[in-house]
Amino acid sequence: MKGIDERPLNDILLPDYLKSRQALINEWLFRLIPDEKAFPPTIHKSMRYSLIAGGKRLRPILSIASSEAIGGDLETVLPFACAIEMIHTYSLIHDDLPAMDNDDLRRGRPTCHKVFGEGIAILTGDALLTHAFSILSRPELGGDVDPSTRLKVINELAFASGTEGMIGGQVLDLEAQNMSLDIEDLSTIHRLKTGALIRASVIIGALIGGAKEKEMNALSAFGQYLGLAFQITDDILDLESPQEISGKTQNSDITNNKATYPAILGIKASKKKAKEAADKAVAAIEPFNHQAEALRRIAYYTICRDR
Amino acid sequence: MKGIDERPLNDILLPDYLKSRQALINEWLFRLIPDEKAFPPTIHKSMRYSLIAGGKRLRPILSIASSEAIGGDLETVLPFACAIEMIHTYSLIHDDLPAMDNDDLRRGRPTCHKVFGEGIAILTGDALLTHAFSILSRPELGGDVDPSTRLKVINELAFASGTEGMIGGQVLDLEAQNMSLDIEDLSTIHRLKTGALIRASVIIGALIGGAKEKEMNALSAFGQYLGLAFQITDDILDLESPQEISGKTQNSDITNNKATYPAILGIKASKKKAKEAADKAVAAIEPFNHQAEALRRIAYYTICRDR
Fold first, then answer.
1. Which of A100, B38, B116, B160 could make an SS bond with B46 (beta carbons 3.0 to 4.6 A apart)?
2. Model-level pTM?
């Protein structure tokens, strides 16, 4: 992987660590998606358009950092990490559709259906979801990860993105528009809609890295708290961050009459709650050595980011 | 499996064979989908609504018959067969959406988006697709099929339903509306949109049944010709079969300005082409013994059915 800084976090700063992992993920994502000229070209163009937009690559970076935290190999975890980013991207494409959140902007660019039309956008989401499972089941990818572990990864990802995870959260979110929610309802929606896949990203990294039971429990708890910290911060950013930084329509939650943490708890209490969740995440992996430093710093980065 | 006739085809008539396998598939489909009361209920209700509508269950029956043709166990193949039916059902839900074919009727009942709204219909398709991969990766399902074979099944299904298969066909179909196609374009669309999943159903049954290389090649060829026979017949039925029998809006292809076999070749030549494809399918499995009798009769049933 020429020209990419592969040093672990201990030797470099977090922004450099994130930048180097993002570069690796971007390189692999494009290697794993059929070329734009592959038949039929429209769908491969739209898959690439949606993936290229970038974003933080938080989920695949979490898989990588989780695997690294227990001494896992960087190149082995990359295709699995990319499959998770494909699932995340598919969920954004479908979420942005007129029948769902009806968003025109995503990651600073027109959404998939704005560019390719609704029909192709629906199929692009379907294609990224399907392609993720194709990648997870290819023996030539992911080094010597044994078939049983691969099946565990597939099952974990299908569960986290299914009706008891991400899709379930989307359903609740759709049904909650224009309804008044209490903090418990809101937590449930977020735990399913966003938290489940973030937690699964950490768990999948742990599976690929060969985590023992105790390590797995600790990393799973880390992932759960991190998901919460992430979502509260997302709600705050929707209010506070101008469009040119967040890449999303500002106040879109308010426009869509969505319940958010700041709306229910206020900004100050929301920020405090996010900080507490990040603290708990870091506490869960307290016994880990310096290899888990990236995870620890990502936990605090999650609540300090500006987009 | 109480009360269900599990005798192989040789001892019973094809309609009884199909009926008994459909009953088994329906029983298993509902065992494999979370209960209607499971949280969040809306999505499990809509998944069940779309699956219960019935249909011929051709794809899962093909998996079962393909496995039986080489001596495979009936109960082992059932969860894999059901996963294929879930993928087929998801594709119908998304295909029926206003942004795609905009169909109000499917299998004689209002389509998913007509009952649950577009947002939930999109998520229901996503959920069935995701759930299929969840089922394929569960070690407690599918008897003692080894992890490597499971991964092959997942890869085969992801490929057949991806951009080089079913989704690719949907894209071409969407782009072909209001365009004039020649017979070669039409064959490509059908081979991808319908043929790939039908062929994969046969191949997956063969994988689960433990096919040797020669058997796999023969069954793969059978699946390919059968897919063609099926699709030509579907086009003919869209023209000839009244709505109360087909369960679909009659002449929907004409309304949508779609190219079809009868439109390009005429009815008579289309029927001849379907018959030739069925003959070739049967010829491909000529060396198989009496256990392949179900596959042979299904090939001819495919071109004689009325819906």
1. B116
2. 0.94
